[in-house]
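Hi U.,

Before I forget, here's the chain from the pilot set. I'm dumping it here mostly so it's searchable later in email.
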Amino acid sequence: MAEPASVDPPALPDPPAGRWERGWRAELGRLLEIVALVGLVVTQPLLDVLGRSPEFFLFHRADPAEILLLVALVTVVPTVAVALLGALSRLAGRTARAVTHTGLVGLLVAALAVQVGRHVTPLRGVPLLLVAVLAGAAGALAHRRWRAPGRVLRLAAAGPVAFVALFLLVSPTSAVVLPRGDGGAAGTAQGSAVHPPVVMLILDELPLVSLLGPDGQIDAGRYPHFAELAGASTWYRNSTGVSGWTPNALPAMLTGRYPAKPVAPHYSQYPDNIFTAFGGLYDIKAEESITRLCPPSRCEQPVTPEQGMGVLVRETGKLLGRVAGPTESTVDPEDSYREQTRAEAGLDAAEPVPADPKFRWDSLDDNQPARFTSFLAGLKPTARPTLHFLHLLMPHSPWAYLPSGARYDAPEDLPNDGAGWVDLARQRHLAQLGYTDRLIGETLRTLRASGLYDQALVVVTADHGVSFRPGAQGRGMDAIKAAAGEVAWVPTFVKEPRQQTGRVDDRNWEHVDLLPTVADEAGIRLPWRVDGRSARQAPRTDGTKHFYDRPGEPVTFPGGVPTPPPLPTPHPLVGTEVRAGPAAGSARVADLAAFTATDPDTGTLPALVWGDVPDRIPDGTLLAVAVNGRVGAVVPVVPADPGGRRFAALLADDKLFHAGTNTLDVYQVAADGALRRLTLS
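Structure:
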């Protein structure tokens, strides 16, 4: 008899516990994949940039707890947000959950492709986005069809832990989060030397050539207070900074050593500096900006810029937008280091504002930087010698001041290079330098009023300059190669106690000479070796200059006082009165409403005008910009920038404006000089 055919036993229903376990494992796997991708797209690039930017946290005076909280937010919040979006899709069923997860993987792969593409390809903008979309689609398809991509991503979920560890333990910012040490040894007195009060004002991003007239002297007409300072001090005219980046330049000035390593500008990394050297014999009143070289045991810094988690999160969000975008960022990160005004900080004036025709509105002195106000308030004689120190981010960008002290608004992404734009950048720089000159005058007046002027050693200098050479704008190696005279050479004035007359010293001064010179004048013996040379010693016989775009990697070039670039000749129309004739075209201008309700008592004026003109108006066409019937600027039409702007004009003369309604006119200047008024919208 034939055996009966075998029959498979009926399938048993899947136990609920088994379904739950498989579902839990699937969700855990999806979560790990999201952790890995968000870590690569958000956590790694942000912590990489922030880890190399300790000055960001130093400027905003973030304490270790705030930094750790920011790291936690950067690491956890984006991951939780994306994972929660995927988890909610499960409410629509398993299929919807799987499709949503695959879509999220594709989007994150596309976002990662944008960042990778910016680094390894010349693609930018829409072409890069298209390639990224294709990469994201391919990544989603591979993830859907094969198991290997998912397995790789789950292993990569350990990445965020590694990124956080590198940030906290290895990056330059680790010194700010976990500081070690509290400064080096104090200096000792040089015999029976007298220790005079020391007043040091360090400006930022100020080329020597910006102050010079055609004769190579300080332009007293434009900068009367710098000229006044030069007339009573020793002007080291052949003075150069050693780096175009403040976190390298300022420590070199205050330690007497060339930049050697890329470390945080923090007392734990530079224990031997002017504050520790003077701390045994001097009281210290220090106002630093993007450094923290003075240890807590020597001084506190009461005036701070905007700080707290709010500003840290906001600026980090802006950073993510620049890191993740398909175009190169045109915004200088240091432009976020803006000095708070006295009014914003809620400070009272250090001294009454002097009677000055340009201060036509009571509130203009409220625009005085808060750190400067605090510095002035401390300039008083004391029983014990005091080091008064201020590093002020002036005339450093963002440029926002007219020479009178009135402020104006400008787009953050306004170009600084390119046809027309580099000239505008230089004009804005020179306008802010005019206001900086006013601050120098306030300093000299306060010193005289307090009785400190004659007895004090007064030092005014800048850490580095900036190039406005077309095609090489900025402070990096391209700028150094094209315009070293604008980037490296800075004004340096040293007024000795009781010095009455000025003199010029053209020795080869490098900014590592600053500390040994100040220490000698103050009767302090430094307890460490320096690379610099005191001005009381014989000058260097070698005229070579040293510049460090990267610590430990100097480039050299010959010395010699640079020749200032010629100032642009004002157009004959500037300052003339014009009549509003019939319209013969059109233009679009940003924020026209600001001209209909101008209130000078706020200390703010609509002094920067920017907009667009029709394509039929060719590049190079001149436009005359007038306020209340008087031409304030003549500027060219240029190719549209990424923001669509084809012209921008700075109206540096605040006397063009009055309270209430002001009339703005823009004219097209014909080849024969005729003006055609453009209808504004």
